[in-house]
Amino acid sequence: MASQAQLNMLAKINNQNGFIAALDQSGGSTPKALGLYGVQESEYQGDTEMFTQVHAMRTRIITSSVFNGERVLGAILFEDTLDRDILGQSTSSYLWNVKQVVPFLKVDKGLEAEVNGTQLLKAIPDLDNLLAKANAQNVFGTKMRSVVKLANAQGVDDLIEQQFAVAKKILAAGLMPIIEPEVDIHSLEKAAAEALLKASILKHLEYLANDQQVMLKLTLPEVANFYQDLVKHPKVLKVVALSGGYSREEANHRLTENNGMIASFSRALSEGLSAKQSDAEFDTTMDSSIESIYQASKS
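-> structure tokens emitted (299 positions)
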């Protein structure tokens, strides 16, 4: 039985204009994210200090007056962020109670080596505990990322089958899964891979019960509106787009060509932010970024 808070979160994602902020850089991607933010590796020692630095960055973003539920629908968190507080509340509680931003949790443990042109999810041995933690902290949903590099039918089918198998466990725990089969923007077979991906997702959606829904996080496609069948599918709550290495300007441009998709940007959201900025400079830069992504997500 869904709680009232979960029902309110569902209604927000379903009905309101806006986008989802991806604030879930994990151990492997954190040094690069901090470097772009102006915090060099010489400024911290070891993982503990690194995660403290990135939490400070995320806290500054989340507590900024321009970051709120009017334009930002949700935020995806790394587990370390879920374990930390913001101004005396757990991060997920602060997001929803103070900002009216729906919290999601990244649950994947990284990628396997490439096989058949894809990188599947590594095993998630503590998934049940993660889902219990998410429920205890009023998290609405989860996200797990795998990667498609080539238009290999077997590889794509294996990847989507794995994603949906994990998604069903997440649904059983009462949470909303974001399935993220990223297509590498540098792939020479990107359009062909996207065709295989869409066909496989449509097939696996039919295996869900009629009262079940998932969310999809997809690379912006080569053909405009290519994912309309998924956007309009009754078993898909929302299709969100990852920036995937595109600049914010390019990602926003591509997003405006894909009706019904909304942004879930990470690096493109934080582009231009710096630890060295004054609060006024930081907020002005954030406001411009949020507004441009919000407008692109309204198309």
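The mean pLDDT is 95.
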